[in-house]
């Protein structure tokens, strides 16, 4: 299982406290989609919105880590070459902020 290493950057605000710009764009793409998207679709859409090109591997790693962390859901289908995942958000954007705030709170109160 891949783990997401979230680092809290208090010099930033909102989701930028936790995520890199390409990760926020990827989440926005999923939040704004009415259907599940595969990694290729997220990667293509993200690269249309970003000033610099991001690798597909970075997108795949982020999406899979987000599933493991509990931010995203996925459906798995079989196809040529094996299994494919299609991703969807587990939470709305505001609910994601609440989820992350609760994770910070839990860790902060763990002594």
Structural summary, described in words:
There is one protein chain. By secondary structure, the chain is of the alpha+beta class. Helix content is about 45%, strand content about 15%. It contains 4 helices and 3 strands. The protein has helices at about 20-30, 40-50, 55-70, 95-110, and strands at about 35-40, 70-80, 80-90. A 3-stranded antiparallel sheet has the order 1-3-2. α1 (about 20-30) crosses α2 (about 40-50). The chain starts with 20 loop residues before the first helix and ends with a helix.
How are the secondary structure elements laid out?
Layout: H1 21-31, E1 37-38, H2 39-49, H3 56-69, E2 72-79, E3 82-89, H4 93-108
Antiparallel strand pairs: 1-3, 2-3
Quick gist of this model?
The protein is α+β, with helices and mostly antiparallel strands and 111 residues long. It has helices spanning 21-31, 39-49, 56-69, 93-108, and strands at residues 37-38, 72-79, 82-89.
Quick tags:
111 residues, alpha+beta, Arc Repressor Mutant, subunit A, three-stranded antiparallel β-sheet, 4 helices, 3 strands, 16% strand
């Amino acid at each position: 299982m891949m783990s997401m290493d979230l680092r809290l950057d208090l010099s930033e605000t909102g989701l930028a406290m936790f995520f890199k710009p390409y990760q926020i764009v990827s989440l926005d793409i999923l939040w704004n989609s009415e259907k599940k998207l595969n990694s290729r679709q997220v990667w293509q859409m993200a690269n249309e919105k970003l000033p610099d090109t991001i690798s597909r591997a970075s997108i795949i790693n982020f999406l899979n880590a987000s599933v493991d962390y509990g931010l995203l859901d996925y459906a798995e289908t079989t196809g040529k070459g094996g299994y494919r995942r299609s991703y969807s958000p587990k939470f709305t954007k505001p609910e994601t902020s609440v989820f992350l705030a609760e994770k910070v709170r839990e860790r902060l109160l763990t002594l």
